[in-house]
């Protein structure tokens, strides 16, 4: 019982000390000054962002980097001016592709002989040969 009372007393003393520290901190803080500092920081940060954006734009202009969409628009405008309509002038593409069979006369062989190879390679080659037939 006595130890419990001592523990409670120590907690009360700790809370008293924390209350004193918080009170002195509140008295030492100047809220209007902190607000002014925060507003100044925000303003300077905005100015820095604007300068960064201007620098990025200037670098893009100097290096000649353009968006792909802007480049396509310029090409389309030029083609319209000279009267070229790519969509209609190209016509239709063939719908069916003609397949050509390749004669099975020659088969590529590995250089260096076939001896001493992995038996799994021979099995795989046999399976590939059967698929070709």
Compute the average pLDDT: 82
Main pleated sheet: none
Secondary structure tally: strands: 0
| SSE arrangement, N to C | HHHHH
Backbone shape = flat
Judged by helices, strands and strand pairing, the structural class is mainly alpha
Note poorly predicted spans. none
Rounded to an integer, what's the Rg over CA atoms? 41 Å
In helices, the fraction of residues equals: 55-70%
Number of helices: 5
Strand content: under 5%
Q: Could you give the distance between the termini?
A: 96 Å
Secondary structure topology:
Elements lengths: L1 H27 L2 H33 L4 H15 L3 H4 L29 H14 L1
Give short descriptive properties of this protein.
133 residues, mainly alpha, flat, Snf7_fam, Related to SNF7 family protein
Describe the structure.
The protein is mainly alpha-helical and 133 residues long. Helix content is 70%, strand content 0%. It contains five helices and no strands. The chain starts with a helix and ends with a helix. The mean pLDDT is 82. Residues 109-133 are annotated as: Disordered. This is Related to SNF7 family protein. InterPro entries: Snf7_fam (IPR005024).
């Amino acid at each position: 019982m006595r130890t419990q009372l001592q523990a409670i007393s120590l907690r009360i003393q700790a809370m008293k000390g924390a209350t004193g520290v918080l009170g002195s901190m509140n008295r030492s803080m100047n809220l209007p000054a902190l607000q002014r500092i925060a507003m100044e920081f925000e303003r300077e940060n905005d100015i820095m962002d604007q300068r960064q954006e201007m620098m990025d734009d200037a670098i893009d202009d100097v290096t000649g980097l353009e968006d792909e969409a802007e480049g396509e628009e310029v090409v389309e405008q030029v083609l319209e001016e000279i009267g070229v309509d790519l969509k209609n002038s190209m016509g239709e593409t063939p719908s069916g592709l003609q397949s050509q069979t390749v004669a099975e006369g020659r088969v590529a062989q590995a250089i260096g002989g076939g001896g001493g190879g992995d038996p799994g390679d021979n099995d795989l080659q046999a399976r590939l040969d059967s698929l070709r037939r």
